[in-house]
Amino acid sequence: MPIGNVHPSVRPAQAGRTDGAAGSAPHRGVGRPRRARGLRSERLAPYILVAPAILIIVVMRLYPLLLGVNFSFTGDGDRNGMAVGLDNYLELFRAPLFRTALGNVGLLVLLLPVAVAIPGLLATFIYLRVPGHRVYRGVYFFPAVLSPVIVGGIFNLLLAFDGPLNAALGSVGIGAVDWLGDPDIAMFMVVGVHVWATFGMSLVVFLAGFATLDSALLDAARVDGASLPKVIWHVIIPGLSRTIQFVFVTTMIGMLTSMFGLLYVMTSGGPEGSTYLPEYYIWIQQGQMNRPALASAASTVLFVIMIVVGLLQIKLLKRAAREA
């Protein structure tokens, strides 16, 4: 049949298909840019959301830090504002009190595993639902809500030479101990009180880490008859390796930067300067000796110590987790 004689009912259908095909091309062309804009917005969204926090950190933390480092190379007193090079740092390391403070930092590093193990073991017992675990959860966290000044005042009374602790020791025939007046044990007392007052926060972090632990591994260990120490060493520690790293670093930072209140109330740096820490030395130089440049140098040294110790801890813990 000749093309010109095609039935009229066919032509509108063909025309409609042609129009639809022609109209669909612009629609697809408009859709692609919209999808591209949507993908670009999704990629930028995380950066936009974290930008305020980064800005606050830069303005409130990093910029003052850089100013402090720069200020540490200037002088005090008659040389105020003058560049003095490394004179402040040389004076720091010649000062007996600052060397004592650095020695106490080494003591804190040695005691750090104990400070982390205590909340870790308690969190393990709570996770394993020992009898009374709900009560323990609240009791353990209670000291974390107390002010360091209140905690220091309480333990000043308990550890006084004529306090309740020595009275209890005397009742069983043990002589009184000058817990806060003996240079050989005063620092251990302050660290012990700090651990008691702050381990509740680490306990909460460990419990959050246990929520991500694969319970099937614990069940398999129980079926195999593994003892609790083996379960802790071969299952819990590897499974919580990242949580343990976090608690180690935050506990160390807390020991180096959050013990001022206890030191001030319990010992005021004594006896004989035996409980000095860098943060207390910084306060003495800034507030009492009017040596802000020297205090800035001490702050810079403290910051470097925290960075070095934190990185070493993370490296050692990663290696221990691989070996476990």
CATH architecture of the largest domain: Orthogonal Bundle
Q: Rounded to an integer, what's the Rg over CA atoms?
A: 32 Å
SSE topology string: HHHHHHHHHHHHH
What do the pLDDT scores average to?
Answer: 84
Annotated CATH topology of the largest domain: MetI-like fold
**What structural class results from the helix and strand content?**
mainly alpha
Count of spatially separate domains = 2
Number of extended strands: 0
How much β-strand is present in the residues? under 5%
Sheet with the most strands, sense and barrel status = none
Helix content: over 70%
Subcellular location: Cell membrane
Organism: Plantactinospora alkalitolerans
Family: Belongs to the binding-protein-dependent transport system permease family.
Protein name: Sugar ABC transporter permease
What's the helix and strand layout?
Layout: H1 10-71, H2 87-94, H3 96-127, H4 133-141, H5 148-158, H6 164-171, H7 186-210, H8 215-223, H9 228-239, H10 241-257, H11 260-266, H12 278-288, H13 292-323
Helix pairs in contact: 1-13, 2-13, 3-4, 3-7, 3-10, 5-11, 7-10, 10-13, 12-13
Name some characteristics of this structure.
disordered N terminus; 75% helix; mainly alpha; MetI-like fold; 324 residues; flat; single chain; 2 domains
